[in-house]
Amino acid sequence: MRLRIHEDGIRTIVEEGIQKSLTACLQCSKCGGGCAHLDEFDLSPRQVIEYLLDCLDEQVLNSRTIWLCGKNCTGCEVICPVGIPLSEIMATLRKEATRRGIEPKYEQPSLIYHKYEHCSKHRREGEEG
Ligand code: SF4
Ligand code: SF4
Question: How does the average pLDDT of the chain come out, rounded?
Fold first, then answer.
């Protein structure tokens, strides 16, 4: 059993996953500015990093943001001046929330998923465009 989870908080798991220290974050908010789905979030991507650094694990794992951030989206990673892979971080946070039995926090699936499913459906039906 990895007791380090309780000693150091989830920040350690995240940093091990991305092989980068979260202290690299400049707290510049460029990630949020480049995210088309910011309005759906309760924590901005910048705040997720800030809260992880402050060991506010419960707030992060109980946020809507970690469930609504797009899978495989690199929209903010390419904007981020230090290349913080937020999509990867959110995936780790979802995994950890699930491991702790925390239910997803959203009333409806993200527009991101709606769009993905819409595109998949039309691909399946052989439609173009
Ligand atoms: S763009 Fe990058 S450096 Fe700036 S707040 Fe977001 S994660 Fe941090
Ligand atoms: S990974 Fe995509 S959805 Fe998530 S915060 Fe960045 S731009 Fe927004």
Answer: 82
